[in-house]
Structure formats: C-alpha cells, structure tokens
Amino acid sequence: MKLHPKLIPALSGLASVVALVFWLRASPAGEFKPRVPGTDRPPGTEVDVARKVEGKLTKGEGMASKLAGSWPRFRGARLDNISREDAPLARSWPKEGPPVLWRLDVGEGYAGAAVRGGCVYLLDYDRKAQADALRCLSLADGKKVWRFSYPVKIKRNHGMSRTVPTVTDKFVVTFGPKCHVACLDAKTGEPAWPILDLVKDHGATVPQWYAGQCPLVDGDKLILGVGGPEALLMAVELETGKVLWKTPNPERWTMTHSSVVPMDFADRRSYVYAASKGVVGVNAEDGKVLWKTTDWKISIATVPSPVVFEDGRIFLTGGYNAGSVMLQLKGVRDSVAEASAAERRTPGEEIAVETRYRLKPKEFDSPQHTPILYDGSLYAVRSDGQLACADLGGKVLWESGSANLFGLGPYMIADGLIFVMNDKGVLTMAEATPVGYKPLGQAAVFERGHDAWGPMALAGGRLIVRDLTRVACLDVKKQ
Q1: Per the domain annotation, does 218 fall within a domain?
Q2: Is 445 helix (H, G, I), strand (E, B) or coil?
Q3: CATH label of the domain that carries residue 157
Q4: How far apart are CA 405 and CA 417, in angstroms?
Q5: Which of 119, 130, 298, 367 is most exposed, with the fewest beta carbons within 10 Å of its own?
Q6: Is residue 197 assigned to a domain?
Q7: How many domains does the chain have?
Q8: CA-CA distance, 299 to 297, in Å (whole number)?
C-alpha cells in the first residue's frame, strides 16, 4: 500500500510520541538527578552534598585553671616560637630534671598544644572510635574539661595527628589530619558553625602523611591554604564560617604541611604560603596574588613555614636535600631599575621577588620545624641532627656537634634560653646566644621515648612537651 505524501510527517510524529511513552515507562524515576554545583570535579574531589560531619561533645570533671600564661597557637602569639612572658625561668635543673606536674597518654602523633584561659587544647586522634578528638584540659592538672570529636577514618602512617589549634578569646579552631576544619566555643566546646571538609567541599588533596598545616586566625578571619582547583588560599569569616574570598589557583598548586603566615610589606597586609610548586603572597583584603615564585619548592614534602622579616626578606628551608633560600620582596617602584627583579614580576602582580642566596643541605637548614629568628640570628635543628645558629647571611656561627644530636626534634626560645628535644624525649636547655653552644641542663622526660617531634608550648612557666604517645607538663620556672 502506498502512503499519501501528506500523511508521512503525521505518522512520523505519532511514532515519536509512542516511543517516548515506552521510554519513560521503562526508565525508573530515580535515574533523573539534578545537577548539583561543585559535583563536576575530577574524580576523588567530588562534593558529597548529602553528608555533613557531625560532632559529639562530652564534659569532664576538669576546671579551667586560674594560672597565668598563654601560648594560643602554633609557634606562639607572634608566630615566632619565642615566649615573652615575664616569669623568669630556671637556669639549672636537679639531676632528675624539672618537676613533672602531670602526664597524659594520647593517640599516635605529633600534634602540639595551645594554651589560653587556663586550658590546654590538643587535637588528638582516637583510634578505637575512629575520630578526631579536640581535648580541652586543665592547665593545672591535665584533667578533661571537655572533649569534642567527629568521625574520620585514618590509618597509621607515621603518626596521625600533626597540627596545633588556634585559640582566641572566643573560639578554638582546629585543622584535622584529613583537612577537616572545626570552629568551637573555646569555653564550652559547642560548635560555632558546621565542620568544614576542605577535600569534599573545596577539592583539596590530603598531603602525604596527613595534613600538618595549622590554622591561621588574623583578626576576624580564618586563613587556610587549600590548594584546591578553585582556591589556592581562602579566607573564612571566623564568626560564621562564611567564605570571604578565594585566591585563584590556575596552576593547581596543592596543599603542603607548611602553615600560612602573615606579612606586612609595602604598606599592606599579606599572607605568605609555601605551596607544592612555589611560594605565593596574597592580599589580606581580597586574596589577590601580589607575588609568586617557583624558585622554592620541595618535591616530596614542604614542612617548615616561611620566616618573614620586616624588610621584605623571607627565609625558607626544608628537608629532602632542599637546603634553604632567602627571598627578597621589592615594591614595583624599587625594582623597575633592576632588570633581574623586574623580570621576576609576573604581569599584573604588584610586588617583585628575587632570590638573595641559597644554602646547601646540612649547611643551615631545618627539615621539620621552622627556624627561629631571635636577636638577629637564626636557630634551627639541621637535617644532620645538630642544633645550629647562623647569621642572616646564612653563615653558620656555631653547631652543637656530633655528640649532641636532636634528630627531628622541636625547639623554642624563652627568657634567653633555647629548649630543644631529641627524638627519644631528652630535653636540653641551652643559652640562646650567637656566641656558641652553651648547654645548661638536660633531662629524660619520657622513659623509652619515641619520635618526640611535637611542637612545644610554654605558658606561665609550664612547658608542655610530647613524644609519639604521651604528653607531659613540666615546671621550668625559677624556684
């Protein structure tokens, strides 16, 4: 039978309608999913919009102490690892070492303590419960005031916890091993806003051996080194958790163990971050890139934070045969006459950066902890395990010697003294002077100590130290 030409379009349309009906009936309604912003990311960085990390708060019998003293964040109030408290410290110890005021067993890790308002804050990991746990303890006796935990699965990988909380007069902020950021009421432990997951929410990549970045609170802002596809750095409103700005990351630099540090230069506030493929400085107001350089990067792990100077110098160091480098920032007006500096300024950036000098590995470096700038000299435990002092040109002034090795241990300065701990938990006290290595006392704090790498904290003459699984509070005041 031959169809009339005018009937062909009508029959074709009818066939399409019938096919559509059969297709709809055969397709389950559950297969239709609306597009959710943020889900079109590379595999492994998708946002799980349905899942929110929930925390649990428990109270203890401990009480906030009335003891004076504060060490409110990583490397202290001024981020320089120097205590400026008035309380004089002992210049010698008895044979058994300084008095131990309290001890505490903790999960495996290297997380250091923060101290404020008579409380000690420690981000721990509870293997049995599979949870990050922020412990608020009494500075007086180490008893639990409260504990806030949230579930996160972590396998043993050279320890678990690694970061130091930041405590303000109102909040305490933590940065977990798998990049969870929590902000709580410092007194009660109640969450101020929902836990932020930088991996799922912003595409960050957890660094090898877990996150080591400590949160930076600057005024009313929380500054985070994200290293995600949409943000190299990010500012969050401390009161609400609202994202204020993001620094673009077109080159996909990723997160390191290094922490963000503030810097004032050329009449403006900025934040300096040593990311995976270079170092960057961004405007504190809007996150705009002011300068960047690829002259410093470590292929395996960048751990120490930048050491900034008032004149625009930045000292960077690390392990894995990286050595050290001193950068110099220059305002555009200062650098236009210098071709080498002008060439290093990326178009659109407002500050030039050049390399002043480099140091070889073991000449003067620090693989794990950030060097201390004190009275015009730099102090560090080098990659050969020796405590050393150098001038600002990189010349080594003294070293502790092969008989005084500290491994990857921490160090800090207070009252003209430098405290340094070795891998096995032996604490040494020496004079912080460029004249020479002058030890004054030594004490084995932990029996059979192991990997005592956690940063130290000093508040009210009480020195808080740790090894892999224990925390101790020592009385180092002058009696």
Answers
A1: yes
A2: coil
A3: 2.130.10.10
A4: 18
A5: 130
A6: yes
A7: 1
A8: 6
Looking at residue 9, its pLDDT comes to 46
Q: Report yes or no: 172 and 134 within 8 Å, Cβ to Cβ.
A: yes
Coil vs helix vs strand at 258 = coil
In the block, residue with structure tokens 């909380």: 165
**What pLDDT score was predicted for residue 32?**
31
> What is the greatest pairwise CA distance in the chain?
115
Predicted confidence at residue 333, as pLDDT, reads 52
- In whole angstroms, give the CA distance from residue 246 to residue 203: 13
Q: The domain containing residue 175 runs over which residues?
A: 51-475
- Contact status, residue 455 vs residue 369, Cβ threshold 8 Å: yes
Please report how many Cα atoms fall inside a 13 Å half-sphere around the Cα of residue 454, on the Cβ side: 34
Alpha-carbon gap, residue 23 to 27, rounded angstroms:
6
DSSP state of 442: E
Q: Which pTM was predicted?
A: 0.87
Residues 98 and 476 sit within 8 Å (Cβ to Cβ): yes
Nearest to 368 by CA among 360, 352, 380, 356: 380
pLDDT at 18: 39
Q: Position 228: which residue type?
A: G
Q: Is 30 helix (H, G, I), strand (E, B) or coil?
A: helix
pLDDT at 351: 94
Cβ–Cβ < 8 Å for 117, 157: no
Amino acid letter, residue 243: V
pLDDT of res. 264: 97
CB burial readout 205-214, b (16+ within 10 A) else e: bbbebbbbbb
- 462 falls within a domain: yes
Task: Decide if 17 is inside a domain.
Answer: no
Locate the DSSP E strands across 198-298.
216-218, 221-225, 233-237, 243-246, 261-265, 268-274, 279-283, 289-293
- Mean pLDDT per 10-residue segment, the chain (479 residues): 45 43 40 35 38 89 96 98 96 96 98 98 97 98 98 92 98 98 98 98 96 98 98 98 98 98 95 98 98 95 97 97 97 53 53 96 95 98 97 97 96 98 98 98 96 98 98 96
User: Residue 105: what are its φ and ψ, rounded to 5°?
Assistant: -85, 140
Tokens coding 74: 């990583």
Vertex 197 angle, CA 104 and 288, to 5°: 115
